[in-house]
Design a protein that fits this description.
Rossmann fold; seven-stranded mixed β-sheet; globular
């Protein structure tokens, strides 16, 4: 990331009302953590790029995140134990394949309509993304649950006592949808679990508050004191450190 892009992102955080902890994490990540993480796990990234090249992927929007994800997996002890993971927005399954290949004891639930979001409409790739997903994940299908539908429908059907160790949110990018996904996901995230939002600095909609950053920042303000910011770069990752207690007045 160039200094020019870094400063543009700082300005974007400011106009989208990011909490102060986000600014600190983003600056730390830019100055220190980013290079350290990349140097440690670049060899792993190259391994997965070779794996992805053998599959049916029409684009690569994910692999650049792999060093950061491996760093999180190591720091928060995801290796060598059974973990339950939820992914909202799977597309052709690149992140799904990485998760199930890297974490041999993980089970993964993928939620997607496989009909694309606003930015995908009119593209020919929509005719084959679900077929590509099924093909790419065929080797690990035994640890995969596929929910074809919206995240609204998934959470309406998801039992209240169903919890996940890790939730990756990469579904609709419209702020209203992102905020709802964030709130519902947090309800189903285990204490000390990790939640990762994709496309934190994504800017497709002309009105700043319609983009994911504004929704994620609203969520962070609502849940102040209940999470810890782990990292901020193209994605933002948080750890749940508290539960929200709801007091009901007697009548």
């Amino acid at each position: 990331m160039s200094l020019k892009i870094f400063l543009k992102n700082i300005y974007f955080l400011f106009i989208c009302y990011a909490p102060s902890v986000v600014f600190r994490a983003f600056i730390f990540n830019y100055i220190i953590a980013r290079k350290k993480v990349r140097s440690q796990f670049d060899s792993k990234l190259n391994e997965f790029k070779k794996l992805f090249a053998s599959k049916n992927f029409s684009n690569d929007w994910f692999s650049g995140n792999i060093p950061h994800w491996i760093s999180i997996f190591k720091k928060y002890n995801f290796y060598g134990k059974k973990v339950n993971i939820l992914e909202i927005g799977s597309w052709e399954g690149m992140s799904s394949l990485f998760i199930l290949s890297e974490l041999s004891d993980a089970t993964l639930t993928c939620v997607d309509t496989w009909s694309g979001s606003d930015e995908h409409q009119g593209h020919d790739v929509l005719n084959k993304i679900e077929l590509n997903f099924d093909s790419n994940l065929s080797g690990v299908a035994g640890r995969l649950s596929k929910f074809k539908g919206t995240s609204y429908e998934f959470f309406n059907e998801c039992p209240k006592d169903c919890f996940f160790d890790l939730i990756f949110i990469d579904g609709s990018h419209y702020s209203d949808d992102v905020l709802i996904d964030a709130i519902k996901s947090f309800q189903h995230l285990k204490l000390n679990g990790i939640m990762i939002f994709d496309d934190y600095f994504w800017k497709m909609y002309s009105r700043n508050f319609d983009n994911p950053c504004a929704a994620i920042n609203s969520f962070l303000r609502l849940k102040k004191g209940l999470y810890r910011v782990i990292s901020v770069y193209g994605q933002i990752a948080v750890q749940k450190i508290g539960e929200q207690s709801i007091a009901v007045d007697s009548i």
